[in-house]
Write the structure tokens for this entry.
Amino acid sequence: MDISLFGAIASQYHDLLCVHTGDTMNLICDLIEEQVINHKLSVDLYTGVQNFSEVATDIPRYRSLGAVCRRVFVFGLADVTPPIIPGVEFFPLKPDTGLAQERFLLVNTPGFWAALLAKEISEPEIGYGIKRYDGGWFYDEQVVERISLLLSQVMGKFYQPVPERYYDQQSTHIAEINRRLLVQLEESELVSQRRWMRLTTLNQFAAILLQHQPLPCMMRDAVQILSMIFGASEAAIAFNMHGGQFMVIASGGDINNSEQVSSLGEGASGQAFRQGKLVMYADTKQKQPIDPLTPQAVTILSAPIKGRRKIYGVVTVGDEFRNKWNREDAQTVGAIANMLAVIIEQKVQISGDVTYQLRQAKHFSQILKKLRRPMARLLELQEQLRKENEFSPTQIETLAQIETLYNGLAMTLGFPVSLNFTNDSYLPPPPKTTHKTSRKTGTETQPTDQVAASRLGSDPS
């Protein structure tokens, strides 16, 4: 007789069933099994794993269950030879039976009873290798009794109902399981949020690569992404220039405040550069050397910008809290470092071209610093003149042209624009003019304002 545990409750408890992933099924099973192990409950535990190979990958847990439980009964397809575990019995199923497509877990004692019942469903659209299940998690006495009876029939044993139940113990077990479940959900949400940040970081950096910016600008934007999106309290990129000097672009600034250092020190950045491999410190307070790129960081992660020719520098991130970075964070920072290495090696005449770009960026920043004061003074004079009211139309038009020129230059250089400036039009509307006809010649004469304006703009010579 083919017996289906899921089919025994599916119609009656249809409203309580929902579709779950395999990870959700594993989580619920872990919660129930951990409750048994933590409280050393001497129970008979029945579990359907679909394939015995799943037990082979989690032998320590089943050893713990075998040591605590009276007996552990495992049902599934014998795709591998089951391991020998004290206290654990394996019941092979045929592929064409209903139980072979189901995941279940059953505990039925006077002080604790629970059942997980689920059946694998076919959803090709969700992708290969992703299993989904329709099922539910039950504490109902009738469900547990019915499933216990059906399993006894599968095993060819006589079922003895539980004569008495201790509801206070059951309530305590459920409360503990729910508490651990909430912790798991919160941790899962944090993990999902962190993974989304990593994905966004790589996506934003890839967008920068598509803009084909000069390398210094690319490094600056990468540092800002690591700081603002990746969540590093300190981030820096060091590029090895000629003569052993390193051009360093750190978070909180741009190319204008980049600096050069002669050494990356003995910290994570220095080790990553010299060894050519990723270096991570979980807690720099444990007698670890201070990293010059992230001197205030407690947790540091540094990845080398390693190309085929040489190591060009490092990408380093730091945070103020211990144990902030993990393996996935290291993979993200390493991916950014690898992409930078590819971009550098794609440049024509690597050493000269990259060094030239960095020097040009430094020279441009010096020019901007020299222009800040005169541009600020020019803006101040414009604001003072705007307060004056005694101007002729010609003077007003000339001042408007000066203001337009200033704002165009300010927008290009990143300086403050005039308060009355808008992006709708660079040029102010021309003043209204009237044309008069000369009585003597019969021709149109230019207005006085236009004549004055043309003289103002003509060559004095």
Observations:
- The radius of gyration is 37 Å.
